[in-house]
User: Fold these one by one.
Assistant:
Number 1:
Amino acid sequence: MTGVLLEVAALHAADAEAADAGGADRVELLARPDDGGFSPDPTTVRAVTRATEVPVRVRLRLSEGYSTTAAEASRLIGLAEHYLSLGAEGVVLGFLDRDLEVAADVTARIIAAIPGAPWTFSEAVDAALDTGRAWRSLLALPRLDAVLTAGSSLGVGHGQDTLIALSRGDRRIAARVLAGSGLSTEHVPWLVRAGIHQFHVGPQVRPGGSWSRAHVDAAHVRAWRLLLDDAVQRATIAG
């Protein structure tokens, strides 16, 4: 990996192979992306981890929305353990309670079942009632190294200023922000200058921007790879 991490959302092995060929540092594997993403079938996880050596994190989500139950959490733990046994590096999960705060207890329960595995908190953070409180809860959880966030539930176009302010205000947040959802090339230089060095793309690396009609394209991934590396180099030169 260079000074900036590029994560590509994949639906199957062909997507993961193209992401790898284009220079991605990590893959998030998910199903049904049109509704925020759900847990994929274990056979897909096996196919993806066999197709690429790029680290793979798998989405843990079985129901619509960002709530879960104790029974569902038990199923998610079983899935997480299975995914890791199939070669996944870690998982992606994000749950809120009825007060729209980070569901810290259930989150801690799930990650405790997969000791040693890194994990990402999903874009659920952007639906939290109090962003500052949500981040304080997340920073208290172990092994969290990425939070997929746009700074707004409406996408990076609306949340860029929030991401910049949060990252400049706390280096721990800057180190964990995985900027995504509505991310465009024009956002990158500003986010990099704020200290953000993790970026997530999905439809941006598919011809026509379509999840259903196009696979990940290695050339599109390479274009993002070069864009990110150039932004880091320019920010370093600017001091």
Note: The first strand starts at residue 5 and ends at 10.
Number 2:
Amino acid sequence: MANIAAAAQMSAGLMYRYFENKSAIVRAIVERQLQDGRAQIEQLHSSADFATRHPGRH
């Protein structure tokens, strides 16, 4: 939790003001990473470079 608090630039106690418990914090982090990953994949699929490299996959 100390590492997460440091990365968020806030105290661990303050994080619990926004999240119910440690599991909720970890779940939010994982969900954010999944969203970011999906967005990056979507950018690859919609880019001209992907279409050029992989004809028939767009």
Note: Residues 20-58 form one domain.
